[in-house]
Model the fold of this input.
Amino acid sequence: MKNLPENHKGFSTLLAFCLIPLSGFATDIYLPSLPAMAKDLHVSAGAVQLSLVFFMFSLGVSQIFIGSILDSFGRFKISIASLAVFSATSFVIALVPDINVIYAMRIIQGIAIAFIVIAKRAYFVDLYSGAKLKSYISSFSIIWACAPIMAPFLGGYLEHSFGWRSNFYFLGGLSFLFLILELLYSGESLKYFHPFKLKTIAQTYTGMLKSGDFTLGILILAICFGLVVVYSLSSPFIVERVLGYSAITTGYSSLLSGLGVMTGGIIAKSLIHKPLAKKVTIAVTTQVILVLLMISTASVTSNIYTLIGFTMGINICGGFIFNNIYGYCLSRFSKNAGVASGLTGGGTYMISSILSYGFVNLYAVKSQLLLGFANISLIFIVGIVFMIFNRYRVLSLAKNPVK
Done:
């Protein structure tokens, strides 16, 4: 086993940060290409949207169970193999013009990405502690938000210049490059390997899921992420088919949407010591106001600027909420970092994939007005869940004052 050399720790940490947004790249880079894929593959919009849902659901389910594997068998070898699988499946998608093959490859990619991302999140808990670890964890959602900013923007240009398949050639090449760098500069970070005993693992999972604040926190994260995905699934068709713009414009709109998420994360990091209940309540209230304005003004003025403007505001608040709750959930069980990271990320992706696809189709989102209705429904659920979450959180703090 190759242990992480001390003199490579700095560059290896940088690589870990770079790999955390890979799931977002795999999700978002081909969003501007959804209409072109539907046309080229002779399938419906819903059929190509399903490729994203399959990936997210696979990624979510896998993360739930992967944490215990990584805590028992280590991070390095598994993440190396996963990078190789992800690279290979990306090239297969680019070469094979069959939607069913694409579905299968996206499911495999979801599993591979789950191993990579969970291993890299746990990497920080393996090597750092105290204020430094808390600072790194609070940076995760900001780093992750780089993908929704850069990926669709890049994907729009790739689609416009080379066609939708170029997105997957790019993913294959990028992951292969990371594979080489990991082999050269990274290594095993896990110091204490947990025995792989199903009974012990089951007890660990059960204990975490019985913690109301942790479980409800995951639900809040899923809905916040679901708001972003609802826009991601619907915006290519609104921007390109309804408003008549190109895939490049879709890329720009997704860039601004992702910038909103990142801005919210940065604000949350700067206010990390403020009371959680107060700041999240303000963020949810602001979201409600923005969505009501989005709905009420749709009949008067509805264009690319109002669509993106309201979405950015909603996503700033969503990114703010996500960062705060994400940090709370990820640091809730520090002794089982892999499992906690897996449950947090897995539950978020799995639930948000179902919610986002369900709400996009429930409201048949093809306009600013319908997007507003989908958003207000999700935000209303966030508000209710957060009130219950906060009660459990207060009880948890009373039992464990150190947290």
About this structure: The first helix runs from residue 9 to 19. The chain has 16 helices and no strands. Residues 27 and 52 are 7 Å apart (CA to CA).
